Amino acid sequence: QVQLVESGGGLVQAGGSLRLSCAASGRTFSGYAMGWFRRAPGKEREFLASITWSTGRTYYVDYVKGRFTISRDNAKNTVYLQMNSLRPEDTAVYYCAAKSDGYYSGSYYRSTYDYWGQGTQVTVSS
User: Fold this and answer.
1) Is 8 exposed, middle or buried (0-12, 13-18, 19+ CB in 10 A)?
2) Are strands 78-83 and 18-25 parallel, antiparallel or unpaired?
3) How confident is the model at residue 92, as a pLDDT?
4) How far apart are CA 98 and CA 75, in angstroms?
5) Cβ atoms of residues 2 and 26 within 8 Å
6) 123 vs 106: CA distance, rounded Å
7) In angstroms, rounded to a whole number, what is the distance separating the alpha carbons of residues 107 and 17?
8) In whole angstroms, what is the distance from residue 23 CA to residue 75 CA?
9) DSSP-derived secondary structure letter, 8
10) Cα separation of 105 and 124, whole Å?
11) Is the CB of residue 4 less than 8 Å from the CB of residue 58?
12) In the beta sheet, which residues pair with residue 73?
């Protein structure tokens, strides 16, 4: 059974940093891509970044480029999201997701991901 467990959320002041982790278990993820999404209060869940397990190919949505960095540690089966220069509008629940058909790339579309974590809350105070 695939399990994704996020951690690392919390309360941070504007301008600060957090690193989120997503521990994946339950199968071999070599052909998968992993994505980070978030859902702010009153908004839809939105894509942030993705990375392929095998090649490390990354993709970012424009509004987090330069501030957020996605990475993975294959030995630990863990994906990270380093978030810098945080803003109050980054306040949201952050989710990681796994896409089975993801050897070459991740995806912007949440419907293409097969597994989801429970989420971790990030709150940025002004």
Assistant:
1) middle
2) antiparallel
3) 98
4) 17
5) yes
6) 26
7) 25
8) 11
9) -
10) 30
11) no
12) 78
Q: What angle do CA 7, 100, 115 make, to 5 degrees?
A: 40
pLDDT at 105: 86
115 alpha carbon, distance to own chain's centre: 12
pLDDT in tens, the chain (126 residues): 899 999 999 999 999 999 999 999 998 888 999 999 999 999 999 999 999 999 999 999 999 999 999 999 999 999 999 999 999 999 999 999 999 988 888 888 999 999 999 999 999 999
Which ranges of 17-61 would DSSP assign to H, the alpha helix? none
Compute CA distances 117 → 7, 8, 15, 94, whole Å.
10, 13, 26, 9
User: Tokens 């397990």 identify what position?
Assistant: 53
At 112 the three-state DSSP class reads helix
Nearest to 68 by CA among 51, 93, 85, 47: 85
